Predict the structure of GTP-binding protein.
Amino acid sequence: MPAPLANVPVHLITGFLGSGKSTLIHELIAQKPPGERWAVLINEFGQVGIDQAMFEERDDLVVKGLPGGCLCCQLAFVMQATLVNLLHRHRPDRVIIEPSGLGHPAGLLEVLRGEAFAGVLEVRGIVTLLDPRRLDDPRAREHETFLDQLTMAEGVALTMTDLATPAQLAAAREWLGELWPRKGWVVEAPRGALPLERLTGGEPAVSRTVDSDAHRRLREAAAASPVLEAFAEALPEPGRPQRECGSALGHETLGWRWHPQDIFDLDRLGEALGKLPGALRVKGVFHTDAGWKLYNRADGAVSLADSAWRRDSRLEIIGEAGSLPDPEALEAALKGI
């Protein structure tokens, strides 16, 4: 009989929408010591769940996605049950949790440090990602969740630095230097290149209590209603995509799933998605005439890469309330591609 798990290190990778969390986790996995097994738990604000499709299945890596809400609000109980299952079935040596870009870390930390995981898990670090360019928007400096994520962080990884100007980098460092509590470290992580030592070399994370009115209200609403079910795994019929939408915290999400036999023309797909307003967060995995592709757009920058995902095609669009395209019109446009 295997020995009970004890003090499995857990790391939280937080950051606002489009800050590069999944990319950074990919880079951390590339540095995983041989012989270790890791578990990655990804929470997405959208209903479909795209980020888990970015990771290849491996014997030494288990990746579980929890779409459709916020781990500290609607999905807290689902997250706890999922994590218990991961620990029991896969017995990981390390756990990395990526909350939604709109998620608040406080409620998640309460679960991880609660009675259910006492002596089993040990929160070893809270890292928040910051794209320096985001601070050019005055609304970012006033966004409650954005500020709380940075306040609770022990370290800050500056991402997208290859796209930022020296002035933007300097302004970000100066602004972070004024936050309290002071950050243990601030490092540049272009293309997600964060040394694994930044996670493994620290002491257990300091408990920092920060709460927000927006997330408190959402937790209260979630407690009074059934927990949101994860996006149905049953495949849609060919030619008949399954659509889902949701809203919370001043943002909305619109998502689709297609049967894997539905094949998109890659050029026409890119053209259609390129017509969406630049402020929207757009990500997807598609079966195209050029193979399976991952599409990712954040802050207007687009990337396209090969994908190992083969289960279905997926598209997720996230934006501020009232900014999303008409779902009927977009679905009709995509149907002819």
Summary: The first strand starts at residue 8 and ends at 15. The mean pLDDT is 86. The domain at 242-335 is CATH 3.30.1220.10 (Hypothetical Protein Yjia; Chain: A;domain 2).
